[in-house]
Amino acid sequence: MITYIRIMFSSEGRRPSLVFDALRNLGFEPTKGNYDGVYRWDTNATTEDAIYLADKVQVTLKGMGAIFTLETVE
Question: How much is the pLDDT for 73?
Answer without folding.
Answer: 94
